[in-house]
Amino acid sequence: MIEIRNLSKRYGALTAVNDISFSVGAGQVLGFLGPNGAGKSTTMKMITGFLTPTAGSISVCGHDVETSPLAAKACMGYLPEGAPSYGEMTVRGFLEFIAEIRGLDADKRKSRLDDVINRLQLGSVLEQMIETLSKGFKRRVGLAQALIHDPQVLILDEPTDGLDPNQKHQVRELISTLAQDKIIVISPHILEEVDAVCNRAIIIANGKLLADDTPKALAKRAPSGRLDDVFRQITTTPAAQVAHA
Amino acid sequence: MHNIKAIFRREFSSYFATPLALVFIVFFLILAAAFAFQFGNFYDRGQSDLAPFFSYHPWLYLFLIPAISMRLWAEERKSGSIELLMTLPVTTWQAVIGKYLAAWAFAGVALALTFPMWITVNYLGDPDNGAIFAGYIGSFLMAGGFLAIGACLSAATRNQVIAFIFTVVICFAFLLSGFPMVLSLFDGWAPQAVIDAIASLSFLTHFQSISKGVIDLRDLLYFATVIAVWLAANSIVLDMKKAD
Prior knowledge:
The structure holds two protein chains of two kinds.
Chain A: E1 2-11, E2 14-24, E3 29-33, H1 40-47, E4 55-60, E5 63-64, H2 69-74, E6 76-79, H3 91-101, H4 106-119, H5 135-147, E7 153-157, H6 165-179, E8 183-187, H7 192-197, E9 200-205, E10 208-213, H8 215-219, H9 227-235, H10 238-244
Parallel strand pairs in A: 3-8, 3-9, 6-7, 7-8
Antiparallel strand pairs in A: 1-2, 1-4, 4-5, 9-10
Chain B: H1 2-17, H2 20-39, H3 51-54, H4 57-69, H5 71-79, H6 81-86, H7 92-112, H8 115-124, H9 129-155, H10 160-176, H11 180-186, H12 192-200, H13 203-211, H14 217-241
């Protein structure tokens, strides 16, 4: 369970996230939509405890992110924007490091490593240095480290960016299989992904939460029945502009 | 403890995954020996000790230690891996200490590889090995002081070159504060207690007193304090600046 109450983040005069509240339960795949700079990544960074909110509170699996950050972080897996990792490490070394920090004991570590390597098809590059890998492999390494401790909550910032169509399909299938008993929050970088994997979509623009519904119901709001049109309609209305001013 | 160990191991092995370790160690050894032989008159003095070798360490460290420390946090910030690290279940302190200890251990490896100098004096004469041991301890502690300063300044920027330059400047100030030239600036107007305080801030005075062979608790305390203060500043800076 993720519970977000009256969350705000301000940088000086700029309000990146403006009084957002929502909660996500098990089995939900929440797509976080919005134009660039809307506050999607900022919100994800606050949920994962990287950024401290200016106001409001976040609790993940019953742990407040600010007051008990370690417990909250332990139950989350996070793929940051751009899938950063340690380029000079091998894929195996990197995943073992994450497994160690995540506190998996030797037996569990082996089986979890095998599982994520298998799921993300990293077998062929295990001994390669991460910086020598293609963008698609780097992204999958980032996904693998987020999954390694089989977390209750997954926060994935643009999980399919840089993947080819086949890999995108695989990652979406993976997300769908994981979704049954987990909470997944993703910021899809294209709208078609929302249809493909999400069962709930939130639209934010200029830090304000503007819509919260199932992708199907959202699509119906436009005469054309297309999510693109709804997205444009919602994020370019005067209301969205005013929210910022 | 577990987390510090994991971060230490990752960081330490990362030095050896790139040419950095090799380049650093080779240059450190060449320069350490060259200074001792060329400027320190290691042979001509006719004394079997390592004083000419140790006396150049502060100047060697002034430029080489910032080269190790500059990447500690600036690189994590630049590549974005800091976001990964700080969203793992580790505290800022654990990350700061784990990474710092790895850098210090690496400097220790470079220092330990100067052992042929020690063998040489023992072969040529009959040195006071206790004093040599103290010299190594002093040198290692001084490297730790420089590194703590560098780690903190590295966290303040995502640009490694800026981190390097700032570290050299601050370390230089810490070295020089014991020199008469600097102290004379305060002479005449500042109270003696202030001048003494500035002089006692110098790495040089404490390093020299240890490398004479006297391991005084006050000198150990001095380096421990310097390291602790700069690492505390490091974690504060990190919390403030990590997301910039």
